[in-house]
Amino acid sequence: MRPSHDYIFTGGGLAGLSLIMHILGESSLSQKTILLIDQDAKQLNDRTWCYWESGKGFFDDILFRKWNKAWFHASGYSALKELGSYSYKMIRGIDFYRHCHSIIASSGRVDVVQATVDSITQDSEGVSVQTGEATYSGSFLFNSIIFPDNQIHPKAFPLLQHFKGWVIETEDPVFDPECPTLMDFRVDQSHGTTFVYVMPFSPNKALVEYTLFTPALLDEAGYKNGLQNYLEQYLGLSRYSITEEEFGVIPMTDHLFSPGEGRIVNLGTAGGQTKPSSGYTFRFIQKHAAAVVQALVNDENPIVKRHYLDKRFFWYDKVLLHMLYFKKMPGARIFRLLFSRNPIQRIFRFLDNETKIHEELILLNTLPQWPFMKAGWKELLKK
Ligand SMILES: Cc1cc2nc3c(=O)[nH]c(=O)nc-3n(C[C@H](O)[C@H](O)[C@H](O)COP(=O)(O)OP(=O)(O)OC[C@H]3O[C@@H](n4cnc5c(N)ncnc54)[C@H](O)[C@@H]3O)c2cc1C
C-alpha cells in the first residue's frame, strides 16, 4: 500500500501532540505530511502537568502558573526552598490540548481522525494502522498507545503512583500564591509512601493532591479521608468547596518499555519516558521530542536510544523502587534526607537524569549507605 502520510501518530495526548508541535516548528520538516489518530476529542481538562524547568521552556506561553520557591515538609523538617534558576511550572491539560489543536488546524498539514486504533503493523515499505473503520499507511509511526504486548512484565516492580486531587475554593484567604508545597510527608504513612502537594492559584484557591507510591490503589474513601484530614490538620480547613477533581495512576516500574522498532517509534509512557522512581514524565517527553526531531532533521533513525552512560540513572531508579517496594526504608525518610541535605537544584538535576557522576556521589552520600548499597547490588545481580 502506498503511504498516504509521512508520519502517522497513534495517540495524541501529551507525547503525540508535543512531538507534532516540535515537528511543525522545524522548517526543514515543512514538507512532511502528518496524520493524527486519537480516540478522544481532547475537550476535557483531564489532567494538570507540573514540572520544574530551568529558563524558558517550549510551552511557556500556555503556563497556568509558575513558582520560584516551594515548601518541602516532613516529620521534623520543613523548609521553603528557593528554586534558583529553576521554576516550578504548571500547565492545565485543556490549555495544552486547545493550544496544540489550534496550531494543528492553522498549519493545514495535519489530518486529524478521531478513532480507536486496533493494531499497528509494519513492513520494509512502511507502517499501517487499523481502526474499526479504516486502514491508514505511512512512512513512520509515532505511537503513544500502550498496547497489550507492551504491558508491564510480571517480574517488574509493580509500584504505582496514584493520586486524587481537588481544586478547592475557600472563603478566607489561606494560601500564599507564591509558595506551593512540593511534597508534604507529615501525613499518615500507614499505606506506604504518602505525601500531599499543594499548588496555590490565589489566596482562596488551590489544587491539593493526595499521592501514594504503593502497589495497590485505595478505595474512594481512602483518598477522600486523606485529603480531608490534610486540609483540616495542616491548613485548618473544614469549610471549602471542591470545584474540580483529578485522579491519576502512573506506573513506577523497571519494566523496559520498548523505544520502538524499525519504523515504529514509541513515545511518552508507552516509550519509557516516565521516570520510574518519581513518575515525572512531562520534561522527559519534551527532551525526547526534541531529540526525535533532531534525528528526523539529520535523516537519522528516530528511535533515539539512551547513551550507555545514562543507563546508570535507570539503575538508581531501580534501587529506589527496591527500597520502597521491599520497605527497606520509609519513602518519607528517604525524601527527608534528600531534601534536608542537598540543594534542591541538585535534586532536580538528579531526578532529571542530568547530574554528573561526582554530583551523584555527593547526593547518594547523603543517604544511609548500607541499605542502599545492598539494594544496589541486588538490582545489579537481578535477572
Ligand atoms: C492525572 C494525571 C496527572 C499527571 N500529572 C503529571 C505531572 O504533574 N507531571 C508529570 O511529569 N507527569 C504527570 N503525569 C504523567 C504523564 O505526564 C501523563 O500521563 C502524560 O499524559 C503521558 O503522556 P502520553 O502521551 O504518554 O499519554 P497520554 O497523554 O495519556 O496520551 C495517550 C493518548 O492515546 C490515546 N489512546 C489510548 N488508547 C488509544 C486507542 N486504542 N486508540 C486511539 N487512541 C488511543 C488517548 O486518548 C490519549 O490521548 C500525569 C498523569 C496523569 C494520569
Task: Please outline the helices and strands.
Blueprint: E1 5-10, H1 14-24, E2 34-38, E3 48-54, E4 65-67, E5 69-74, E6 77-82, E7 86-92, H2 93-107, E8 110-114, E9 117-122, E10 127-131, E11 135-143, E12 159-169, E13 181-184, E14 193-202, E15 205-214, H3 220-235, E16 241-252, E17 260-261, E18 264-266, H4 282-297, H5 311-325, H6 331-341, H7 344-351, H8 357-364, H9 369-381
Parallel strand pairs: 1-2, 1-11, 2-8, 5-13, 11-18
Antiparallel strand pairs: 3-7, 4-7, 5-6, 9-10, 10-11, 12-15, 12-16, 13-14, 14-15, 17-18
The structure holds flavin-adenine dinucleotide (FAD).
Task: Fill in the keyword field for this structure.
30% helix, alpha/beta, 3 domains, D-Amino Acid Oxidase, Chain A, domain 2, seven-stranded mixed sheet, globular, single chain, eight-stranded mixed sheet, FAD/NAD(P)-binding domain, binds flavin-adenine dinucleotide, 383 residues
